[in-house]
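A note on notation is needed here, since sequence and fold are reported together in a single record. The reader may check this reading against the record printed directly beneath this paragraph.
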Amino acid sequence: MRSTISEPDDAPAGRPFRRGLAARLVGLRQRKGWNQQVLADHAGVSRYRLAKWEAGRHAPQAEDLVALGKALEVSVDELLTGRNLLTQLREKLTEILRQTS
């Protein structure tokens, strides 16, 4: 049985979580120059399911997020939050350096 990504408990009406994820999927796919079918093939999902995720009607299940991340060459964290791991580490290091100086 696949686990499902659910909305955070504090997500207001309108489902901004799914909309944000949808926008990131579209942007990352377009950055690669791929259409939906190409990404769907690389991730091993149907184009129909991908279209629902990109429209924000549904969120991918955990296993699908991993496959999407591999296909798009980004972390699952970046798919979910939009923040690149390297950027997060750089920000944390900058914060630590400010505290120590």
In short: Helices lie at 16-32, 36-43, 47-54, 62-72, 76-81, 85-100.
